[in-house]
């Protein structure tokens, strides 16, 4: 997807003319608060056109009876009207040549099918006219860096702290909570809350922020994705620009999914798929609002860079030990301080202080004014240390205040990133000092270590390439297992030797040619779950066992209304190996997605599966393999050779290429035997696209 596929939002976010439909003087009304936010609480020197057919003036400004009465087109029209008047107003705005319409009104897609039909009508107005629609069910937007509020929020006037964080939400309440982190010195430069997204979506706003030089990090609070592939395209643009995206996805549980649908009518999507695709695209996923705020603020200050060694530095031994323990539990690494660093600390600190990592200066810092700054300066310049974690367990008045002053003085020139943690519930002067200097301290060690882990992960992440494979076309018609495996063989994948037969006699001949033991599988149109239907027999050691299996299979299928007219006889695969699964399906939000995990019954018992959006390359396929919890089973274990991971990766890349090609609704390869000599597909279901039975392979 290229830039021209995303709209230019500059007229929306920095307009020169704004019409307010439903402008009012009624106190605490949407029409009044919106006009006052723009006219009195914004630094807006453009033209404002109140539209109210019943008034000549609104808050001292000349009012107009309709959009058609304005002297010319406006950049933005803000719609503050009842739901039943919105569509007509949008048609009037489009006819007047309006660039963007912002719709605050709720009562549309979040209410059900009738409301969604009205939103579809809005989208059609946008498509036909070229006017873009923001909302409905939106609290508007705040361009705080330019001191502009197109919002009805009664507290917009308090949004005075600008910054490098771009915030994208669909609802207003959680976004407002993020904005109010300004009390901690965390400034949001641009906040867009897109509501139900009848036309413009989060993806459009994210893409704009990628190109906004004032925005350093994008914080995303998503209830769902209206257009998953488009959102991923915006995420790829952010990755190319080196701009971090930190995201919180609401709607992971059944309760959350139901709530988001009633709120913004967004598709919540599969939580597991969403999380995996976030990782694939370098999006840092967080779990709650505090973590979103902390992590976004950390990225704004630190940017994206590889980081490794962490030094824990404190004046409390117990606090230092706790911090070091939490760092280790998170899988992070304490730096080994250089000999020169340790020697310098020994020369400055008391003999009983700990000068290895973690560093504990003891309460001696209470009596020596320069001790803390001199020692912290040494640690911050240690060649093996990229981050200094600075937990402050309690407020000690002037001592803690001086410690905060030291951090503020050293931070601008410190080679290592300084991360203060204010653990006390007493927010004293030192806490305010750190906030004012842009060093917003974490409020617990857990939050600090979690955010630091996210920072280090993103610093190590890099986008992987995609593979473009020239794959043979599939034959026409539906594919039974025999046809599916023939196709897989044409794609270069390994399948067991097998033959299609139509009688017990032919089955015996085929088995003699293949060699016992064999597997017998019925080929019945529409029968996807063969094992449950008694249509699979394994480990058949001779012709007598094969004939008996044929008879039993005929009886079982007949009882279910099926006939055994064709079957597949295959070599029974032996040797070392682990059963895994690989699949391809069309996710309703993100499009073609490849899945990988432990196979056989384990995929249902453990749900040890990961996902990627198609297409992708070999590096991403190997990352998928490494990501499952059962990864150790694929390596050498107790004398058993490990699986051929390269063959598994090749299989996943082929599935990804098929997904991008678009002619497969679903492909379920389960199990696949992953052994030291390669990966053999033991069972395969392929459903063509489009097909009325899409989804059955995974039910």
TrEMBL record:
Domain of life: Bacteria
Domain spans labelled ATP-grasp: 485-522
InterPro entries: ATP-grasp, ATP_grasp_subdomain_1, CoA-bd, NAD(P)-bd_dom_sf, Succ_CoA_lig_flav_dom, Succinyl-CoA_synth-like
Key words of the record: ATP-binding, Nucleotide-binding, Tricarboxylic acid cycle
GO BP of this protein: tricarboxylic acid cycle
GO molecular function, one term: metal ion binding
Repeat as UniProt keyword: no
Name assigned to this protein: ATP-grasp domain-containing protein
Species this chain originates from: Pseudooceanicola atlanticus
């Amino acid at each position: 997807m290229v830039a021209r596929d995303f709209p230019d939002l500059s007229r929306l976010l920095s307009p020169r003319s704004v019409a307010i439909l439903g402008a009012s003087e009624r106190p605490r009304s949407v029409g009044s608060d919106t006009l006052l936010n723009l006219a009195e609480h914004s630094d807006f020197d453009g033209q404002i056109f109140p539209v109210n057919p019943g008034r000549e003036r609104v808050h001292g400004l000349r009012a107009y009876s309709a959009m058609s009465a304005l002297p010319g087109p406006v950049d933005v029209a803000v719609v503050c009207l009842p739901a039943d008047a919105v569509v007509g107003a949008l048609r009037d705005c489009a006819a007047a040549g309006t660039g963007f319409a912002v719709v605050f009104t709720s009562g549309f897609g979040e209410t059900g099918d009738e409301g969604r039909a009205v939103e579809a009508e809005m989208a059609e107005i946008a498509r036909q006219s070229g006017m873009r629609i923001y909302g409905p069910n939106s609290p508007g937007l705040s361009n705080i860096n330019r001191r502009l509020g197109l919002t009805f929020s009664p507290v917009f006037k308090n949004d005075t702290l600008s910054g490098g964080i771009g915030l994208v939400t669909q609802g207003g309440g959680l976004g407002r909570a993020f904005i109010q982190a300004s009390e901690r010195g965390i400034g949001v430069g641009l906040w867009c809350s897109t509501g139900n997204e009848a036309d413009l979506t989060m993806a459009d706003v994210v893409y704009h922020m990628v190109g906004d030089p004032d925005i350093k990090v994008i914080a995303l609070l998503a209830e769902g994705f209206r257009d998953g592939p488009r959102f991923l395209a915006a995420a790829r643009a952010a990755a190319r620009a080196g701009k971090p995206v930190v995201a919180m996805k609401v709607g992971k549980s059944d309760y959350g999914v139901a709530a988001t649908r009633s709120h913004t009518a967004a598709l919540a999507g599969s939580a597991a798929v969403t999380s995996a695709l976030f990782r694939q695209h370098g999006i840092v996923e967080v779990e709650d609002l505090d973590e979103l705020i902390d992590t976004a603020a950390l990225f704004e200050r630190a940017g994206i860079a590889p980081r490794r060694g962490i030094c824990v530095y404190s004046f409390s031994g117990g606090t230092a030990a706790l911090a070091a323990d939490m760092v280790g539990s998170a899988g992070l690494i304490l730096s080994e301080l250089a000999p020169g660093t340790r020697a310098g600390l020994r020369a400055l600190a008391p003999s009983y202080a700990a000068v290895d990592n973690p560093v504990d200066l003891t309460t001696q810092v209470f009596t020596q004014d320069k001790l803390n700054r001199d020692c912290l300066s040494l640690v911050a310049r240690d060649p093996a240390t990229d981050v200094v974690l600075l937990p402050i367990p309690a407020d000690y008045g002037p001592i803690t205040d001086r410690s905060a002053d030291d951090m503020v003085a050293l931070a601008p020139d410190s080679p290592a990133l300084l991360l203060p943690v204010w653990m006390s519930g007493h927010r004293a002067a030192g806490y305010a000092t750190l906030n004012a200097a842009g060093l917003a301290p974490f409020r617990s060690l857990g939050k600090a270590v979690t955010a630091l882990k996210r920072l280090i992960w993103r610093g190590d992440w890099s986008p992987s390439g995609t593979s473009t494979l020239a794959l043979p076309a599939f034959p026409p018609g539906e594919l039974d297992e025999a046809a599916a495996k023939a196709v897989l063989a044409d794609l270069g994948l390994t399948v067991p030797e097998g033959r299609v037969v139509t009688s017990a006699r032919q089955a015996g001949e085929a088995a003699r040619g293949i060699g016992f033991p064999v597997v017998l599988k019925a080929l019945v149109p529409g029968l996807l779950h063969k094992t449950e239907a008694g249509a699979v027999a394994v480990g058949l050691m001779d012709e007598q066992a094969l004939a008996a299996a044929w008879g039993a299979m005929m009886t079982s299928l007949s009882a279910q209304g099926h006939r055994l007219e064709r079957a597949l006889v295959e070599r029974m695969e032996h040797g070392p190996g682990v059963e895994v699964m690989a699949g391809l399906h069309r996710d309703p939000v993100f499009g073609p997605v490849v899945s990988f995990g432990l196979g056989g019954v384990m995929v249902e018992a453990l749900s040890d599966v990961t996902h990627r959006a198609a297409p992708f390359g070999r590096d991403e396929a190997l990352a998928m393999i490494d990501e499952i919890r059962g990864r150790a089973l694929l390596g050498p274990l107790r004398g058993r050779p490990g699986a051929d991971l390269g063959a598994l990766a090749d299989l996943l890349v082929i599935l990804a290429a098929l997904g991008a090609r678009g002619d497969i609704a679903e492909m379920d390869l389960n199990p696949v035997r992953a052994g030291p000599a390669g990966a053999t597909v033991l069972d395969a279901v392929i459903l063509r696209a489009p097909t009325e039975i899409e989804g059955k392979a995974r039910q």
